[in-house]
Design brief:
17 helices, seven-stranded parallel sheet, alpha/beta, six-stranded parallel sheet, disordered C terminus
């Protein structure tokens, strides 16, 4: 099978990194088109041997992107188009329909009131639903997202849940990597270090994490990620007098000097995700693969599993309090008292293995392409 993946951009982000990991394990010939911003992940994909093209979309109103993309799809003779992220799903579904090619879309980041961190308006939802009908299937990265899609009115038969995946071996704890990363980041060997990973945006609530760490003398915090809240978070750390205990690493895993996420997790003693809401919670699963105790708020990757599958995770915010700072501080205090320790990766990590999930996605592809080749009069009886 030959597939074209269409994504809104290829800067460092969860969906973008997930696409790169997926293509390393997907048993299909794949090319990638980014509508805009061919950033660090584009370079990584090219290093992996994937053909990446930039459509050069100038704005959300660049309607000329549709015929350009449709022409590219036709010339590539693709069996299937797979779109990722809102703008690529909207434009990509239309272009694939014009090119006469089957299209599957993945919904990576659908919240109750936000999509990809932006407010979810009536117009945004309506445009999504109108174009969703042009596809053969919509993939949800968690049961939580699948439920939200059904609540929107997407037919259940069109929704397939294929979770995000991790390569657990890449995150396995390494004592040598821990020492080297702590030396690089000037973290004392005996310091208790908390890690957070993600875009520095309001919904991730890294301000809560900084306030909690500030209330725990001697505890260090490393934040891996960048975003529009970086300046405000640095200012908060300065106001609280903890500038020397909080390290802002920026984007990790690219060509810069910052260590990769596996190295950051090896250097840490606990992991925190205080997000107000999530569509999956990939960074939490990566931390579990590294053997870290985890404190989390919203995390469908854990919440969608049967109780007891993730013994190393503690949930905060279930009381309904708008500010979980005190809860988080108490949880981190307990972890600090217990001291640095590594836990065996829980069964959840195997459940989200990228190889397993790539096979699940290939099943969706096969069904979508097979259904598209059936004459409409027969398809009604499937």
């Amino acid at each position: 099978m030959k597939a074209l993946h269409v994504i809104t951009g290829l800067g460092v982000g969860g969906a973008e990194q997930q696409l790169r990991l997926l293509l390393r394990h997907l048993p299909a010939r794949c090319d990638v088109v980014t509508l805009t911003n061919p950033g660090a992940v584009a370079a990584g994909l090219r290093a992996d041997g994937v053909r990446v093209r930039d459509l050069g979309m100038r704005s959300n109103r660049d309607l000329g992107a549709v015929p350009r993309l449709a022409g590219l799809i036709r010339r590539g003779s693709y069996d299937l188009v797979h779109t990722h992220l809102y703008r690529a799903c909207v434009y990509g579904r239309v272009a694939a329909r014009l090119a006469g090619t089957t299209v599957v879309s993945t919904e990576h980041s659908l919240g109750r009131a936000e999509i990809e961190g932006r407010p979810l308006t009536r117009g945004t939802r309506e445009l999504y639903l109108r174009t969703e009908r042009l596809g053969a299937a919509t993939v949800a990265v968690s049961r939580t997202v699948a439920d939200r899609l059904r609540d929107w009115g997407v037919p259940a038969a069109r929704i397939h849940t294929v979770p995000n995946g991790v390569d657990a071996a890449a995150f396995r704890f390494d004592a040598g990597r821990r020492r080297a990363t702590r030396a690089l980041l000037d973290l004392p060997d005996d310091a208790f270090v908390v890690a957070g990973v993600g875009r520095l945006v309001p919904g991730k609530r890294f301000d809560v994490v900084i306030r909690s760490v500030a209330a725990l003398p001697g505890v260090r915090l490393v934040l891996a990620g960048d975003g529009p809240e970086a300046g405000a978070l640095r200012a908060l750390a300065a106001r609280l007098g903890v500038t020397g205990r909080v390290r802002f690493l920026g984007e990790c895993g690219g060509a810069g000097a910052a260590p990769g996420i596996p190295a950051v997790l090896s250097a840490a003693d606990a992991f925190v995700s205080a997000s107000r809401e999530e569509s999956f919670g990939l960074a939490v699963v990566e931390a579990l693969a590294a053997g870290l105790p985890v404190v989390h708020a919203a995390c469908p990757a854990i919440e969608d599993l049967p109780a007891g599958r993730v013994p190393g995770a503690v949930r905060i915010g279930s009381s309904g309090a708008s500010d979980p700072t005190e809860e988080l501080t108490a949880a981190l205090r307990l972890h600090r008292t217990a001291g640095a320790r590594r836990l065996p990766p829980p069964p959840a990590v195997d459940h989200y293995d990228i190889r397993l999930n790539s096979r699940r996605l290939m099943d969706v592809y096969t069904e979508a392409v097979g259904t598209a080749t059936v004459p409409p009069t027969e398809r009604a009886h499937l």
